[in-house]
C-alpha cells in the first residue's frame, strides 16, 4: 500500500457548524488537494448553539419560551448539505443521507470503504459527506 493511502480525516459536526464553516471553500480545497475527508453532519434542523448559550446566562429569559423560528435559528426548509459540498467538489464526492440507526451503521461502513479505497472510482474523491437526520 502506498504511503498515506487508506488514511483519512473524519469529522462529526452539527448542521449549523457545517453551514457556517464555509463548506464551499472547504470542499473545493479538499478536491483541489485531494485531501480525504469524511464528514458526518448531524442534522437537527437548526442552529441551536446560540439558544443554549443564552439559556446558560438567562435560563428563565425570553429565549426559554421562544420558538426556533422566532429566534432565527431554524433551518426550515433544510439545506441540501451534501449537495452544497458535492457542488464545491465538482461532483467528486460520495454522499448519503440517513435517518435510522440501522441505516447509519450501513452507510458509515460504506463511507469508510469508499474512503479507504480512494473514492468510488479509485481516483481519490475529495471525500464523503453523510447527513444524519436527527430529532
Molecular structure report:
The protein is of the alpha/beta class. The protein is built from seven helices and four strands, in the order βααβααααβαβ. Strands 1-2-4-3 form a four-stranded parallel beta sheet, sandwiched between helices. Helix 7 links the parallel strand 3 (94-98) and strand 4. It is elongated and about 55 Å long. This is Thiamine pyrophosphate enzyme TPP-binding domain-containing protein. Residues 8-112 form the Thiamine pyrophosphate enzyme TPP-binding domain. Keywords: Membrane, Transmembrane, Transmembrane helix. Pfam families: TPP_enzyme_C.
Order of helices and strands: EHHEHHHHEHE
The main pleated sheet reads as:
4 strands, parallel
What proportion of the residues is helical, as a percent range? 40-55%
- Shape summary: elongated
Separation of the first and last Cα atoms: 41 Å
Please give the radius of gyration in angstroms. Answer: 17 Å
Which blocks of ≥5 consecutive residues have pLDDT under 50?
A: none
Number of helices: 7
Arrangement of strands in the largest sheet: 1-2-4-3
Number of strands: 4
User: What's the average pLDDT?
Assistant: 87
Strand percentage: 15-25%
Q: Structural class, from helix and strand content?
A: alpha/beta
Which key phrases capture this entry?
43% helix, elongated, 135 residues, 7 helices, four-stranded parallel sheet, alpha/beta
How is this structure best summarized?
This protein is α/β, with parallel strands linked by helices. The chain has helices at about 15-20, 25-30, 50-55, 60-65, 70, 80-90, 100-115; strands at about 10-15, 35-45, 95-100, 125-135.
Amino acid at each position: 500500500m502506498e504511503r498515506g493511502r487508506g488514511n483519512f480525516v473524519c469529522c462529526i459536526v452539527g448542521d449549523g457548524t457545517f453551514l457556517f464553516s464555509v463548506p464551499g471553500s472547504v470542499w473545493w480545497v479538499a478536491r483541489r488537494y485531494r485531501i480525504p475527508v469524511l464528514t458526518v453532519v448531524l442534522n437537527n434542523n437548526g442552529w441551536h448553539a446560540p439558544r443554549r448559550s443564552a439559556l446558560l446566562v438567562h435560563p428563565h429569559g425570553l429565549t426559554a419560551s421562544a420558538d426556533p423560528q422566532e429566534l432565527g435559528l431554524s433551518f426550515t426548509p433544510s439545506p441540501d448539505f451534501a449537495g452544497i459540498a458535492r457542488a464545491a467538489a465538482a461532483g467528486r464526492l460520495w454522499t448519503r443521507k440517513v435517518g435510522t440507526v440501522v441505516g447509519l451503521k450501513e452507510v458509515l461502513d460504506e463511507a469508510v470503504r469508499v474512503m479507504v479505497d480512494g473514492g468510488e472510482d479509485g481516483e481519490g474523491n475529495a471525500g464523503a459527506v453523510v447527513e444524519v437526520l436527527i430529532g
